[in-house]
Write a structure and sequence with these properties.
Shape: rod-shaped
Structural class: mainly alpha
Strand content: under 5%
Order of helices and strands: H
Radius of gyration: 22 Å
Helix content: over 70%
Largest sheet: none
């Protein structure tokens, strides 16, 4: 089995960490958008044409 190059592993871990950070930021932004939209719907429910 070949020896693992610590520098290469550090680079790969750093790259994965960057990707994970970006993904988590995107998830957070999506959740915030949904929360704001939901809060807006609760505060101002759509008006029904039946009433």
């Amino acid at each position: 089995m070949d020896a693992i190059d610590p520098e290469l592993m550090d680079q790969r871990v750093a790259a994965l960490d960057d990707k994970l950070t970006a993904l988590l930021a995107e998830i957070e932004a999506t959740c915030m958008t949904w929360a704001v939209d939901l809060a807006g719907r609760v505060e101002n429910p759509p008006k029904s044409e039946d009433t």
